[in-house]
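User: Predict structure, ligand iron/sulfur cluster.
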Amino acid sequence: MTDIRPALRRCTLCADRFALTATAHRPNPVVWFQPGARILIASQAPGLRVHEANTPFWDASGKRLRHWLGVDEETFYDRDRVAIVPMAFCFPGYDAKGNDLPPPAICAKTWRAQALATVPDVRLTVLIGGHAMRYHLPHFTSVTKAVADWRNWPEGVFALPHPSWRNTGWLKKNPWFEEDVVPRLRKAVKDALDD
Ligand code: SF4
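Assistant: Predicted complex:
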C-alpha cells in the first residue's frame, strides 16, 4: 500500500480558507500515525497550540485525555502503539467568538479512509467529539447520547466528550462518565496495548 503520509504532510488544500481566518495561518498537517498502532484516537482537529508544537494533544486537553485513558505521555506519543487521526489534520482557525472552527470536511473526504487503512491492526477506537462520532457511529444524534449509550457501542469502540476545558461543565453534569465509562476505558486501553 502507498504511504500517504509524505503527501499528507505537504497538503495545502485549505490554504485559501485558512488565509482568511484571524490567524491567517498556513496549513500544517499534524500527522501522527503509522502501521502497527493498536489504539486509534479519532479526534477533531488540532488547536493553535498543537499547530505550533506540531504534536497532537500538546495542551491541557491532552492531559485530561491521558488521564481518562490511564496512560502516560511516553505511551500516548508512541506511534507504534497509538495512532492519532483527526477529522482534519490542520488547525482550522477561530470563529468570531474565538472558538475553533469546525474541521474542514474536505480533509476527511480526501484523506481519512486512506489514513485509517494505514493502521489495520487497531484493536480499540476512541472517538472524541461529535465530528468523529458522526463519521464512525451509525445513527449518531448527539455527543451526550452517544457517550451515555456506552453499553450499545460496537465492540472495540469508545465515544468520549472532547477533553477540552470547555467541557468541564458537561463533566460536572454527567458524573456517570468518570464513574462508569472511564474505568472501562482504562481497562480496554490496557487490554489493547497488552494484546
Ligand atoms: S486540513 Fe486537511 S485537507 Fe486541509 S490543508 Fe490540512 S491536511 Fe489538507
